[in-house]
Amino acid sequence: MNNLWPLVVLAALGLVRLGWGFVNSVEPTAAVTTDPPAPAPAGALVAPAPSPPVAASDPPPPCRALRSAPAAQRSPGLRGPLGAVGDDPIGQATGVDCLALRDTDHPLRFVGLSAGEVTMGSPATEDGRWPYEGPQHRVRVPAFFAGQTEVTQRQWAYVAGTEPGRRHGLPENPSSFTDDPRNPVEGVTWCDALRFAAALSELDGIEPFYKVEEDCESTGVIRQVSTQGYRLPTEAEWEYLARAGTTTAYSFGEDPEELCTYANVADRTVRETYEDWSTIDCEDGFAHTAPVGSLRPGPWGLFDVHGNVWEWTLDPWVGHYRGREHGERYDPVDLRYEDRAGNPVELADPTVSRVLRGGSWYFVARYERSAVRNYGLPWLSVRGQGFRLVLPAASEP
C-alpha cells in the first residue's frame, strides 16, 4: 500500500499500524450544517417498516417467518443482458426477520433481498469522489439475506462463549468501546469475522460456508466447504444492499447535511472529545460507536450502512474498477476474483488486502458515501472496523 489514513486521525485514535490505509492521505476539512431530514428520494424502493431499535432493558419483539423468500421475489428482466450503467437499479426488499440466535434476547435480524442489478462506483461528477471508485460498472446480484445491522458486541460475546466459538478460537470481545453491549463489535480482523460466521452457522444448524485455517492471519487461507452458511458479503452485494435502489451519493439522497439523521459520523459530539478533528456541523449524539439501529434506516430497512464502523467484505482489494465496465466475475464459493482484464486475485494470499466499506464514526461526509472503498490486511485489528453478515438464498429454478 502506498498511502495511509490521515495521520492526524490515526494518531488521535492510536491506530497508526502497518497494513491498514485509506487510499488517499488528504483529509477533508469543510464543515457542513444540518437541516431537518428530507423524505426518501423519489423512486426509492422502500422495505416494509423494520422493527424499532430494542432498548437494553426491553425484550425484543418475537421472531416471525419472512413473508416470502428472496428467491421467490425475483425481479423481472434478470435473465437477459446486463443493464447499462445509466439504467435504473433493479431489486427490492421482501421482509425482516430473526434468522440467527432466534432463542436469545439478542437475535440477528436479516432483510430478504431479491435478485437485482446495481451500478457500482461513482460518476466522475460526484462531489468528493476518489479515483478508485471508477469506472462505474453494472453488476447482477443473486437473492440473499442481508444483516439488518452490524454484528453487536453482545452477539459476538454470546457466540464466542459457545463450543463452536471456542473451537474456532474467537476472542471474547476485541472491542475498544464497551460501554453498551449493543455497540457494533470492532477491532475485528478479517479472519476472525469469517470464524464468527462459521461458528454462527454451526450454532444455527447450517453447514459453514467456509473453513478458516488456523494460520489465516499469516497465510490468508480460507477454504470453501459448502454453498450454505453465513458469510461476509461480496463487495457487489454490499453496494447493492447499501444503495437500496438508489443512485445518489448516499442511500438517503445527495445532501451530506442529512448524515446525522442516518449515520454515526464525525460530528459536534465527537469534537467535544477530539477538539482538533475535522467534523461535520451536525449532531448524531454519539462520541464513538453507537448502539446499532440508533439512527434512521435506509430505504430497504438496513441500519448503519453509512458510518458507525467500517464493514469487512469478502473481496480482495483492487484499487480500480478498470476491466469491469462490461461485467465482473466473482464467485464466493470458489473464493476467486477475476476481472475482464484477466487479472486473477487469489484470496489465499496474506499480502492482498481485503475491501472495507461504509465509513465510520470518526470520518466526515466524503468518506461516508455509498461508493467509498477502503482496505485492510486480513490480520489487521483496528477499532472502528466491524462487519455485517449475509446468508445466501435458496437456488432459483
Q: Low-confidence runs (pLDDT<50, min 5 residues)? A: 1-19, 23-60, 65-74, 328-342
- Please indicate the percent range of residues in DSSP E strands (runs of 2 or more): 15-25%
Biggest pleated sheet: 5 strands, mixed
As a percent range, the share of helical residues equals 10-25%
CATH class categorisation: Alpha Beta
- According to CATH, the homologous superfamily is paralog of FGE (formylglycine-generating enzyme)
Rg value: 19 Å
Helix/strand/pairing class, anyone? alpha+beta
Q: In CATH terms, what is the fold-level topology?
A: paralog of FGE (formylglycine-generating enzyme)
Query: How many domains make up the 3D coordinates?
Result: 1
- Written as H for each helix and E for each strand, in order along the chain, the element string is HEEEEEEHHHEHEHHHEEEEEEEE
Provide the spatial order of strands within the biggest beta sheet.
Answer: 1-14-13-9-15
Tell the overall outline. Answer: globular
How many distinct beta strands? 16
How many distinct helices?
8
Detailed description of the structure:
This protein has 397 residues and is α+β, with helices and mostly antiparallel strands. It has one domain: paralog of FGE (formylglycine-generating enzyme), CATH 3.90.1580. The protein contains eight helices and 16 strands. The strands form five sheets. Strands 1-14-13-9-15 form a five-stranded mixed β-sheet, covered by helices on one side. Strands 2-3-6-16 form a four-stranded antiparallel β-sheet. A three-stranded antiparallel β-sheet has the order 10-11-12, with no helix packed on it. Residues 1-19, 23-60, 65-74 and 328-342 have low confidence and may be disordered.
